[in-house]
Amino acid sequence: MSEQQGAPWGRVADDGTVYVRTADGEREVGQYPEGSPDEALAFFTDRYDALAFEVELLEQRIAGGALAPDEAEASVRTVRNAVVDAHAVGDLAALETRLEALGPVIAARREERKAERAKRVAASRERKEGIVAEAEKLATSRDWRNGANRLRDLLEEWKGLPRLERAADDALWRRFSTARTSYTKARKAHFAELHEKRDVAKVVKERLASEAEKLADSTDWGATAGRFRDLMREWKAVGPAPRDVDEALWKRFRGAQDRFFGARDEANAELDREFAANAEVKERLLTEAEALLPVTDLETAKRVFRGISERWDAAGKVPRGRIKELEGRIRAVEQAIRGVEDEQWQRSDPEKSARADDMIGKLQTAIDDIRGDLDAARAAGDEKAIRELEENLASRQAFLDMARKAAADFGS
């Protein structure tokens, strides 16, 4: 083919040499001696098309943000070098122009990424400062149950955050690490102390359980009940033993306690059954006593009531649940009779005010003494003494009420 034959961007010489046309003139790109001129141009045009496709693909990847700015620049340089010295036929200048146009696009992407990174870093700084503040707060707390788990979560979150500038990041990390170390040391010290206390508690509770088991079959109800109360106070005060033995020790202690108090309750129930008949006798006596009211004949009422009182005392004890009721009713009759007697005495005795005041003082002193003894009996769990003192206190209180009424009537 002659040199005049060819395409717009290249030609094929008669010797098979292929040239590409550029702004600076023709440039030899290769030879294709064995084919026709059309085949030669097609061969080198296909090379151009491959370069054009590569430029187009690069444009798309850069526009879509698939390449980082530095990576994009390197790719543009590589493709540009390939275009400049390309052994291809086509508008190579247009490809260079398209590659040059990617420079501003890459610069814009770089600024966008810079702004995005600045935003991420600012958010990271804020969150890391929040993590440090929370960690330092945990370091001064005693939340041993949740604190360790929370610090682990904060550490994992820290690892996923972008780094800051080195100095700022290192400073925040040191604070975070110091807080974690401080908390961990305090937590270890706490559990070491707790372990020691639980070992001590185990020894104490073993002793308490053993003593409780020795007391379980005692029939000294009052003293033993008091001792069980003391043992329970010690048990609560000593705190928990190691978990694997604490429940077993409690079952031993509680079992012994239940056995004792169950036996005591059964014994008291038996006494109550025995005293039920006495209560029936006292109910009949109350019917007789309450029939004396209202008092119309003081001397007769006093004489009859003395006989009733003697039979009342001889009747014996009643069930505990009925003491207050029965004693209250008999004392009410006694007070009514004494009230009538006091009225007559006040009308006849010129020194009744002085005597009433003296009696009130003595009764009050006696009542105070009885109350002190009653408190001591209750503390000791002495059921027998408690019942006797309660009866005595009720009687004394009735007398005191009558004495006060006499004094009040005299003053009126």
Description of the structure:
The protein is mainly alpha-helical and 412 residues long. The chain has four domains: 6-116, no CATH class; 127-189; 194-266, no CATH class; 291-411, no CATH class. Helices cover 79% and strands 4% of the residues. It has helices at 37-63, 69-84, 92-139, 147-159, 166-215, 221-238, 243-290, 298-315, 320-348, 352-380, 383-411, and strands at residues 6-7, 10-12, 17-22, 25-31. The radius of gyration is 55 Å and the shape is rod-shaped. The relative contact order is 0.05. Residues 1-6 have low confidence and may be disordered.
Strand content: under 5%
**Helicity, in percent?**
over 70%
| Cα-to-Cα separation, first versus last residue | 157 Å
Q: Give, in order, the helices and strands.
A: EEEEHHHHHHHHHHH
Strand neighbour order, sheet with most strands: 1-2-3-4
Q: What structural category do the secondary elements indicate?
A: mainly alpha
Poorly predicted runs are 1-6
How many domains, in number, for the residues?
4
Query: How many H/I helical runs?
Result: 11
Averaged pLDDT, please?
86
What is the overall silhouette?
rod-shaped
What does the radius of gyration come to?
A: 55 Å
Largest sheet: 4 strands, antiparallel
Let me know the number of strands.
Answer: 4
